[in-house]
Amino acid sequence: MRLIHRLILASYCCVLALPVRADAPPSAAPLADRSRDFLATMKSAWPKKPHRELRALAQSEFSRLRLHEALNEGSPTTSDPTTQRVVFEALHLLAFTTQAAEHALALRAFADSKQVAPSLTVTELQQVYGVLVRARQFAAAQAWQARMEVGAREFLPIIIDRLGPGASPSVWVVGKTPDTLERRAAKELAGAQVIMIAGLGCHFSQAALRGIAADPRLAARLAPLTQWLVLPEGQLEFRDLQAWNAAHAMMELRLMHRIEEWLFVEKAATPQFFFLRDGKVVAHISGWPKEGRSEALHHALDALENGRAGVTR
Q1: Shortest CA distance to 270 belongs to which of 210, 220, 206, 183?
Q2: Lower Cβ count inside 10 Å, N or C end of the chain?
């Protein structure tokens, strides 16, 4: 797990350690207490629920607790620093969980307000940038990087998006023009297919990709069937994406636009392998142990090619 992710989780734990008033109705409880309630609810649900349910829960709880009061035309309703910190955490977790542009932009507006902006920490500046990238708000992310330390900034390519909001599912691919990233419609989920989901910052995903590339027979079987997808993450890591694709033409990585466009993906975990027949999952393999998954992947490919149901691991 990258340092920024550890810092994010640590900040949640610090906020959640503060006392929560559970006796007051949501509309009467102080804004800070309602924000803590939201964080506690989401932390409890995170390991138990699939991504779609977490997204729905985050939005419903944010509304139930009337946390929209945290924003008043882009400005916080309180000048209390402690309240501002916990409200920031709630807004960040909402944006992180939902990957929704409106929530990412709301967090940016809150963080950019006169009351909050002067006291933003390095971690909080990076958190705002991260949710903007996850929400695919690349122009806003590029502008926000000017607020960050030089060493924390990353290269963002020229963005080309001709699809518009209605296209689904879609992916981002390294463009033929140098230093461009282009959004395209994903391959139709018809016939026999494999979907691998990786994380560029995930050690196990990197081990899986290297392991498959080093196994000529397995790579040859997967290549014609597989879409190699990367989850939306808090950093784009475009140079790493470029370098991998240049060295592995048969295993071209593409970035998911939004995770909820892929209905069969229940958990935002990496790596995962979904074996599909006409869009229906017939086998699912998750994780990458030290010894690899070669045998399991071959068995799942056999089941897919022979029209049988495979195993879920």
Answers
A1: 206
A2: N
Q: How do residues 123-176 score in pLDDT, each as one tens digit?
A: 999 999 999 999 999 999 999 999 999 999 999 999 999 997 777 899 999 999
Secondary structure, 3-state, 80-140: CHHHHHHHHHHHHHHHHHHCCHHHHHHHHHHHCCCCCHHHCCHHHHHHHHHHHHHCCCHHH
User: What pLDDT band is residue 16 in, cutting at 50, 70 and 90?
Assistant: very low
Phi, psi angles (nearest 5°) of residue 158: -70, 130
Nearest alpha carbon to residue 56 among 120, 100, 21? 100
- DSSP of 27-89, one letter per residue? TTS-HHHHHHHHHHHHHHHTTTS-HHHHHHHHHHHHHHTTGGGGEETTEES---HHHHHHHHH
Q: What residue spans define the domains of the chain?
A: 3-152, 170-305
The amino acid that residue 36 corresponds to is R
* The domain defined by 170-305 carries CATH number 3.30.420.10: no
